[in-house]
Design goal:
Length: about 400
């Protein structure tokens, strides 16, 4: 069993590492269909038993998220079993990710039985040549069909909808990216949109093609101009920009992700899943190191490696998470949580920042949209001020 700590973990993440084929840009852990076909049941069975173990220990979770990979590689019955094991009365949000090409009405019983309250779909682009470059299995016609089905499920069962889009893609113009937003909003009317810029991850097919100059990616200035246009368009359409890459209408935030951004505790189960847990005095991560087959055939709770976090690592992680959101950092909470005074620690560094990057008041430090564009640099410069624990001096 995992050591769960004193505070009850708020969220549960379940990783389903099954995809049909690999997208060219993907650095997540997932396996192509040739590796898992016929093996889903073994994987689901271990997950189901581990879920039962943690639910017995914790009493349940406030949010559940089944992600991947593509959870649409499992049947409705398999997903139901995982959720029946995981769900408790205190659960207020259950999200399942689904790739458009595998989404069908066969999953509607999940919504009808209220096992799932939120559907998150990776649309990514509404242009066939761009989707092809990304190595997506879905074509525009699959995306259109899936958006219509998702809207139907929303109408019938009241589930929340979230669509993922990607920007700064090879072969994509600003106009095309704006058009993608307009199309998914007008057809699907989602309460939530995630908009990610393409990042070229080492070891991916995309990285190889970029290094061989077969594909050209956007430069920093181009990306900034693009993001500004897309963020403005989403704002005009009524979406609140509540996190660097996330937008919600009428407060339809992703509660599960808010747990991560608050650096609250969560458990992740399945190959490559991560957990963050705390006791009164310590914080630690678990990460599941077993690949698909060793995980599915391994003993329960094997392969979760524990890594303790030092106090400075914890503060840095908190800065990275909290500054992603439009709630920013409440200085009183920061003091209570870390026994450190935010202003004494950071104000000298902050005065050297471009004033357009942030808003700093006596009780709050929050980044502007311009600041979000240079988030990594800001966190890096602040992190240099965090005191290291005495035993590392
Ligand atoms: S569907 Fe998602 S997880 Fe699977 S390869 Fe594509 S990006 Fe990666």
């Amino acid at each position: 069993m995992l050591t769960l700590g004193a505070s009850n973990p708020k969220a549960l993440y379940l990783h389903i590492p099954f995809c049909t084929t690999r997208c060219s840009y993907c650095a997540f852990y997932s396996e192509p269909e040739s590796s898992w076909r016929g093996f889903q049941e073994t994987y689901v069975s271990r997950l189901e038993q581990e879920i039962a173990g943690v639910v017995q220990e914790t009493g349940g979770f406030e949010t559940i998220f089944i992600g991947g990979g593509n959870p649409g590689s499992l049947t409705c019955e398999q997903l139901s079993r995982l959720l029946v094991a995981a769900k408790s009365n205190q659960c207020s949000e259950v999200t399942v990710e689904m790739n458009p090409e595998t989404f069908s009405e066969s999953y509607f019983p999940l919504f009808e039985k209220k096992l799932v309250t939120r559907l998150s779909m990776g649309i990514q682009s509404m242009d066939d040549s761009v989707l092809r470059q990304l190595g997506r299995n879905a074509k525009v016609e699959d995306n259109l069909r899936a958006i219509a089905l998702a809207k139907k499920a929303h109408g019938l069962y009241g589930i929340d909808l979230s669509f993922d889009l990607m920007a700064a893609l090879p072969g994509q113009s600003i106009q095309m990216a704006l058009q993608d937003i307009d199309t998914v909003v007008s057809l699907g009317d989602p309460g939530h949109i995630s908009l990610y810029c393409l990042t070229v991850e080492e070891g991916t097919d995309l990285a190889r093609r970029v290094s061989e100059r077969e594909l050209k990616v956007w430069d920093d200035d181009g990306q900034m101009e693009l993001l500004e246009r897309l963020w403005n368009r989403l704002g005009l359409l009524g979406y609140e920009h509540y996190e660097v890459s996330n937008f919600a209408r009428n407060g339809r935030y992703c509660k599960h992700n808010l747990v991560y951004w608050d650096l609250d505790t969560y458990i992740g189960l399945g190959s490559s899943a991560a957990s963050f847990l705390q006791s009164e005095s310590h914080s630690w991560h678990y990460s599941q190191k077993q690949d698909l087959h060793p995980f599915a055939e391994g003993t329960l709770f094997s392969g979760y490696e524990k890594e303790m976090l030092d106090s400075d690592q914890l503060v840095e992680e908190y800065l990275m998470m909290a500054l992603r959101t439009n709630r920013g950092i409440e200085k009183n909470l920061f003091k209570t949580r870390f026994s450190l005074d935010f202003d004494s620690l950071f104000s000298k560094t902050i005065t050297n920042f471009d004033p357009l990057w942030y808003n700093d008041t006596s009780h709050l430090f929050v980044l502007s949209k311009v600041g979000w564009m240079v988030l990594d640099e800001i966190v890096l410069r602040l992190a240099l001020q965090i005191p290291q624990p005495l035993d590392r001096h």
